[in-house]
Amino acid sequence: MYNKGTIIPGLVIFVLLVTFPIWFNAFSTASTVPKLELPPGGEKECVASATEMRAKHMVLLNEWRDDVLRSANKTAVTVGGKEYRRGLQTACMQCHTNKDKFCDSCHTYTSVNVYCWDCHLTPDVAAAKKETH
Amino acid sequence: MKYAFSFLAVIALILIAWLGSQIPGMPYLFGVALPYLAMIIFLGGCVYKVVQWAKSPVPFPIQTTCGQGKSLDFIKHNRLEAPSTNGEVVARMFLEVVTFRSLFRNTKSEIHEGPYITYESSKWLWCFALIFHYSFFSIVVRHLRLFLDPVPAWIGWWEFVDGLFEVGAPTWYISDVGLVVGCLLLFSRRLITRHVRYISLANDYFPLVLIFAVAVTGILMRFFLRTDIDIVNIKQLTVGLVTLSPVIGAKIGSIFFIHVFLVCVLIAYFPFSKLMHFAGVFLSPTRNLRNDSRAVRHINPWNPKILPHSYAGYEDEFREFMVNADIPVEKELTPSKDE
């Protein structure tokens, strides 16, 4: 083999780069796999089934955002006789009050960086703001 | 015909993964065994190829230059196009690898009435290649979020920049669109340009179709066919793969297995195909040699070792025979002692 001095370090760098996730995970503490927490209030019904919400909640929230904010269409949705005002704070967070456990645990685990909280407040923060006014 | 074959092959692969992953127990084959196998073939195959290349001697300095080589002091040396030191070679290689300067010089030739032949700069290939390769690279980096636990912050920044337009939810990435468009453009280039079409083979079309299918299945999985695509569940499997303890928790939709199977085929096919240009670009003698053939003697590594043999030495070796054959010698035989 010619040019051993460059070929071998090059190959070593290549193999280390490709197997980078193995080394990274071996030398870092693994996070626990998130488990969804049901609403503390004990609500069992949502605007859609659990599987559908798991798969499509981001699509639903996006549609609501566009409808309510951009088209000024604020009609509530009625599912199973219960009326929901369409909004993250006005609907979702009413039951799923804990953002850390309900939203962040999965999003952090899978590096889904949502921009909901650029505008929205969690129930705790919203309540705290109300008190100060 | 050649592109029809590529499409049929990819459709067959999709069917294999789709039907195969429905059989109970088979998700472990498609989600665990094949990814490991493909990765081993990829690493082993790439190392084998590079070692084989490194074993081939380079008999001549064959660097290609496109500028004035280093010469007399008052002649301006083009350091990038005719590099004469290792540093200049590194700079040239770096720009070749990140900006595809060779493709930038692509020309097209046409015959006009007369007949005249004309050569004209053709930047399309360079442009399509940039779109395709950078999208591919960005997608590979973004996929690290599924393999690293905890996810480092810089992957989040990368995703932010890639999804800068914040279109839809989940966000569309620029690189998703770039890869699909890049595949389509490179494919149509092979079909539309007649001379390129003439020299294109099935093994030129197949990787393009395969990468296109990988991109499309990935997009379908992210945006459209979301049944049983629970990212937490999938990340458990992918992190399991790199911590060597893979488990498939809940049921995963077959689009995931189709995507993973196509990727496995792609990376197992890598070392034995034109895709090895990712390593080959570093080992191109026309690019990685110094342009110093007048300053330094390039010795062919397979030359036999021949020592210089002077006439005096030659005569020393054969004097006796020369004298016997009456050939004049410069130095007579020394008389032996018994005479």
Q: Could you please describe the fold and organization of this structure?
A:
Helices cover about 55% and strands about 5% of the residues of chain A. With about 130 residues, chain A is mainly alpha-helical. In chain A, a hairpin with a 2-residue loop joins strand 1 and strand 2. The model of chain A has no long low-confidence stretch (mean pLDDT about 85). Chain B has a two-stranded antiparallel ribbon with strand order 1-2. Chain B has 2 domains: about 1-100 and about 190-305, Fumarate Reductase Cytochrome B subunit (Up-down Bundle); about 310-339, no CATH class. Chain B contains 14 helices and 2 strands, in the order ααααββαααααααααα. Chain B has helices at about 1-20, 25-55, 85-100, 100-105, 125-140, 155-160, 175-190, 195-200, 200-225, 230-240, 255-270, 275-280, 285-290, 310-325; strands spanning about 105-110, 115-120. The interface of A and B includes residues 7, 58, 61, 106 and 115 of A.
What characteristics describe this protein?
heterodimer, A: about 130 residues, mainly alpha, two-stranded antiparallel sheet, 6 helices, about 55% helix, B: about 350 residues, Fumarate Reductase Cytochrome B subunit, 2 domains, 14 helices, 2 strands, elongated
Summarize the model shown.
The complex is a heterodimer of chains A (133) and B (339). Chain A is mostly helical.
